[in-house]
Amino acid sequence: MLEKIREGSQGPVAKIILGAVILSFALAGIGGYLGQTTEQPVAEVNGIKISQTDFARAYQNERARLEQQFGEYFAQISSDPTYMAQIRKGVVDRLVQQELQNQLATELGLRVSDEQVKKAIVEMPYFQLGGEFSNDRYLQVIRQMNFQPDSFREYLREEMTRSQLVSAVAGTEFVLSNELSNTVALQQQTRALDYIVLGKDKMKAQVTLEDDAVINYYELNQDKYQSTEQVSVQYLELNAENVDPEVAVTDADVLAYYEESKTQYLEPEKRRVSHILIENNEDDAAANAEAQALLVQLREGADFSELAKTKSDDIVSAELGGDLDWIELDMMDPEFESAAFALENVGDISGVVASEFGYHIIKLTDIEREEVQAFDEVKVELRAELEKNAKIDAFYQKQTEIAELAFEMSDSLEDAALAAGVELKSTGLISRLALPAPLNTPAVSNVVFTPELLEDRVNSEVLEVGSEHIIVVRVLDYAPAATKPFDDVKAQIETSLINEQASALVNEHAQTLFGELQAGKSLTEIATTEGVDVSSEDALARQTYSVAPAILNEAFKLPHPVDGKSEVAVVELNNGDAALVQLNRVNSAAPTADLDEQQKQSITNSQINRNYLAFVTALEAKAEVVRPQIQVSEQN
């Protein structure tokens, strides 16, 4: 078991999981402390406490992910306290699951070595400049995530160790062939049904709002009618693409660079070879003897191509007379390669060469000697590279000046902007989601809305928003979130209350009609009485979008009709309407043995997800988990 888990930790699943963890850091950052100042944990797992700080980190990442997913609609979504409470609960649940996995990993003796952690850090693209690991960038990024090197390494070690368990579950999962075919048959099943929709709009005339209902609702639900906090900022932006180098690149510079880097423009020697292979899987001595006999025939004038076609065990090249096409160094077996590149002239034939595949006789059929690309062919490319490097050098020099001046003159950006030769930009009062580029990234907005910048009005640190692209920002003005005036939301509340009561009335009426349907009254009679049309589906599939999702879900929950008797149900729709559904027939699909790989993989992945969820649920069932009923407030 342990060996399987350790092997799985090196596989692609583990790497994908690790990549996803680090990517979420790179895109979202960790941000500040979002919880209360109490030390009360958000949960406790077998005596191990999950702190408010741990929750704050995970919650801020989830908020950033949702902001990126929903864009400008996130402000509307996040104004719903019930929805955000579900988000917070989901974050706590994931932290509990992670702690359960950590404890199991410890129990199994799993651990990621220091060398593995170091290797993972060095290979992460987020810590690289020009394809090489940069320690300065590494420190800058993890500090933006509120980590010190030691704590980040331990956090990463924990994530990598936990991924071993995930890989083990995913790597050992399988689905039987009959399960695959039956699942596909179930997915392809269709259903025939009739239904009617009862709209809530017809009930609105029956709704009468009490005089004080609107104001009472407003006073009890003021958290739903909050205007978002707004900020006015000033910032300077420095991008290497727009930086002028101190000294222009000359033709002499380009030529000197060419001479220094000439090895990069070598066209390595290529050789075209043919071979005859005698495999030695069964009898090494006999294979060697056969190869030696063939070599004698070749030296006596036998045609190499004909012998390759009839004697070589390399079936693919044998059909081509032994031709292996062009090869370069470090492409072939070392022994084979040494012999091939030792041949001096086209037409030369090697002796018998032993490799891990057997015994070869090699013939050199063509040579392309090593060449160096001419200066004129690469000078444009070299100039562009030199100019880019010069811009980058100038950029980092200016970045250093900006960082020093922004820190020394913490209440103004004018000196830093003057030294960098860039224009100061500013915004009016705008919400977090309306911040313009390049401020509209979590890495920047999280800093802008920290107490240090909002209250002290000091300059931020240098914030990286891209490769060789930075900004420094300071807050000019701030308007906190506030409850919108009653008059501004009165009409909205009235509409909401009328819709809510109309929906309750139509669903109550639908229950009455459902009773009539169960008693034997036909759906057509009910539809005529209600003045609505009967809609029909002869072959409703699970992936159909022509009917409301609630109707679709209910249709596939109903049992199969028996003895020609329909199954009926009443459904509350997401928009507040109601529906009566009558299932007439189930159209079963025959199991099929011919499944494409995409279908198999999709079904297997679903099975993996279900089993992994069951695995985590089983861990929690055996554990002592306490979730205190505490409130975790948000800063933003």
Automatic annotation (TrEMBL):
Keyword DNA-binding: no
Gene3D superfamilies, per database record: 3.10.50.40, Porin chaperone SurA, peptide-binding domain (1.10.4030.10)
Membrane topology: Single-pass type II membrane protein
Record keywords: Cell inner membrane, Cell membrane, Chaperone, Isomerase, Membrane, Rotamase, Transmembrane, Transmembrane helix
An example Gene Ontology CC term for this record: plasma membrane
Subcellular compartments: Cell inner membrane
One protein family per Pfam: SurA_N_3
Membrane-spanning parts: 12-34
Stored InterPro entries: PPIase_dom_sf, PPIase_PpiC, PpiD_chaperone, Trigger_fact/SurA_dom_sf
Domain PpiC: 268-366
Main localization category: membrane
Keyword Transferase attributed: no
Gene Ontology molecular-function annotations: peptidyl-prolyl cis-trans isomerase activity
PANTHER family for the chain: PEPTIDYL-PROLYL CIS-TRANS ISOMERASE D, PERIPLASMIC CHAPERONE PPID
Family: Belongs to the PpiD chaperone family.
Identification of the protein by name: Periplasmic chaperone PpiD
Species annotation: Pseudoalteromonas citrea
